[in-house]
Amino acid sequence: MKRLLPFILIIVLVIGCVVAPFVLFRPENYRKPLMDQLSKIFRHQVLIGKIDAHYFPPQIVLQQVSVLKTPEIRYLAVNQVTVSLGWRALWGQTDAPTGVQLSGAHGVITRLPSGAWDYTDWWPNGSGGSGKTGHPDITIKNSDLLWVDDFAPAHAEVQMKNLEGQWSAAGGALTLTGDLGGAMLPATFNFQAKGPLGMGDWSGEAKLTDGGRTADIQLRRQAGLWQATVHSAEWRLDSTAALARFYGRLPGVPSGAGSSFLRDWKADFTSIGATTTFTHSATIDGGTTELKGAIDEKAAARVSLTAALQNVPVASLKPLVGSLGDGLDGKLTGVVSNFELPVSSAAWEKARAEFVFEITEGSYRLPDSTLQALKKVKTARYLHKKFPELEDKGFPFSKLRLQGILEQGGITLQEAGLVSGDVRAAVTGRLESRAHSLDFWMELQIHEALPHLRKELPERYLYGEPGSEKVLPIFGRMQGPWSEWKLRAAPRSKVPGAAQKKLRAGLAV
Q1: How far is residue 291 from each of residues 266, 279, 335, 364, measured CA to CA in Å?
Q2: Residue 465: what pLDDT?
Q3: CB-based contact 226:275 (threshold 8 Å)
Q4: Among 128-132, 226-230, 460-464, where is mean pLDDT lowest?
Q5: What is the pLDDT, as a whole number, of residue 127?
Q6: Rounded to the nearest 5°, which phi and psi values hold at 59?
Q7: Which secondary structure element, helix H or strand E, spans residue 453, and what is its range?
Q8: pLDDT band per the 50, 70, 90 thresholds, residue 5
């Protein structure tokens, strides 16, 4: 019997080792401590659905984990969280996680009316932990993050989809890949960083890919200073403009607006405290663009900037200006100054800017309905004789100068003048972006040198000796939607004095 005792003890110990994990390692014992700890970390109630365990190696598997914003709305919902533990957990001892894997995580970050994002209300900020245990490695699988703005002119969102990544606690290295969508046109990204993100100094690199095009982004945070530089040999303007409109809560451009490309695109961002300064330079179809400005987020976000363009084809700016550029062609040079945009609800209505643009060697194709209406005006015969390709190629001009103010959700043209040979025109008035309508006073001056063309004008507009007649100024009013405005003749006496003064200044272009 004494000889069998050691063997019996060994058998008992083996059975104990096999049975103990199933007796001592009970996953339900972790439910309340985990919910309490996670609720402290996220500063909101955390719910855990089903909880299970794997014994070799020891893991706790959590199903349907939710961080609640309200009982009905979730900041974050995770299909499955797998928490890896040390071997001591099998014997009922508390052990810090060695790794956490999130599978099927779905997060929603919502924008507030002020322009801020609500992630500061729930995203872990380093609080809630005991400080006595190390952080586990984190792995992300098949997840997505949605940035939503319901206070923009229309519901807007940026999607980060198919997220896969890993963060190493030992070196603080993060790798994250995924796809972009929503306000950003489809692109893939790869992000790598090292250091305590959100706290302390760190550096990283991101690469955006769209077809064969790439944009390289270098990021660095050091001593409270945050910097980012962007460079791309070629990147889509519509994608960049869409992201800028999303941030600025600006009206969207209809799909099908076409695309052009930013070439040799360079951008720099420097942020310290609540202020971010930025610069941009790129060429667009042979023209140059430069931009510099600042974002102030002390209270509500506010963007201020100046921009300069030189010899940029108007058609290439379609992703930026949308239907405002319909029918217009030529090379644009100009400056936008004193641009101020409060990033709040109804941002476009509160934006303000001053601009001076000059378009050279261009044309303006009138809307079809406007062309039909022009056939009824008294100068129709002259216009069609003077510009025989008016219907097909538009109204040609050597110079078009526009000076005005963006304010109250529309554009006030203070002085606008056009030169087309011996024909000059000026307009002044307002474009309403929300109603997509215009209301302009117009003055047309014709200094026709060819007698046979002067004969095509109504006699009421002519004065002077036969054979050397001159043409009286012609006034009118342009009104209606951008896409089908109408022109009606108006006597000078009906044109307000202030408008006449601006028309004279426009004719001096």
Answers
A1: 11, 6, 10, 27
A2: 83
A3: no
A4: 128-132
A5: 44
A6: -145, 145
A7: helix 451-454
A8: very low
**Cβ-proximal residues to 279 (8 Å cutoff; 6+ apart), any chain:** 266, 267, 268, 290, 291, 292
- Residues with Cβ < 8 Å from 2, sequence gap 6 or more? none
Structural contact between residues 74 and 107, judged by C-beta atoms closer than 8 angstroms:
no
CA-to-CA distance for 43 and 32, rounded, in angstroms?
A: 16
pLDDT tens for 374-425 read 777 778 888 888 898 888 888 899 999 999 999 998 999 999 999 999 999 9
Residue with tokens 């982004």, as numbered in its chain: 217
Q: How far apart are CA 503 and CA 481, in angstroms?
A: 22
CA 455 → CA 383, 395, 445, distances in Å? 12, 21, 16
| pLDDT number for residue 55 | 66
Q: How far apart are CA 73 and CA 312, in angstroms?
A: 47
Sign of the four-CA dihedral 256, 434, 506, 443: positive
Q: Rounded CA gap, 314 and 331, in Å? A: 6
User: What's CA 108's distance to the chain center, in Å?
Assistant: 18
Cα Rg for the chain, rounded, in angstroms?
33
CB atoms within 10 A of CB 20: 13
Which residue reads 């103990």 in tokens? 20
Backbone angles phi, psi at 143, to 5 degrees: -120, 170
Residues 6+ apart with CB under 8 A from 155: 148, 149
Token output for 382: 């002259």
| Entry pTM | 0.83
Q: Are 348 and 381 in contact, with CB atoms under 8 Å apart?
A: no
Closest CA to 394 of 369, 368, 366, 417: 366
Chain centre distance of CA 257: 16
Inter-residue contact 64 to 39 (CB < 8 Å): no
Strands (E), 273-381: 275-284, 287-296, 302-313, 328-342, 352-364
Question: Please, which contacts does 452-457 make with residues 24 or more away whose CB atoms are closer than 8 Å?
Answer: 453/382, 453/385, 453/386, 456/381, 456/382, 456/385, 456/386, 457/379, 457/382
What string of H, E and C letters represents the secondary structure of 176-238? Answer: EEEEEEECCCCEEEEEEEECCCCCCCEEEEEEEEECCEEEEEEEEEECCEEEEEEEEEEEEHH
Tokens at residue 155, please?
């519901």
Alpha-carbon torsion, ordered 463, 464, 469, 471, to 10 deg:
-30
Say which residue the tokens 């760190």 belong to.
202
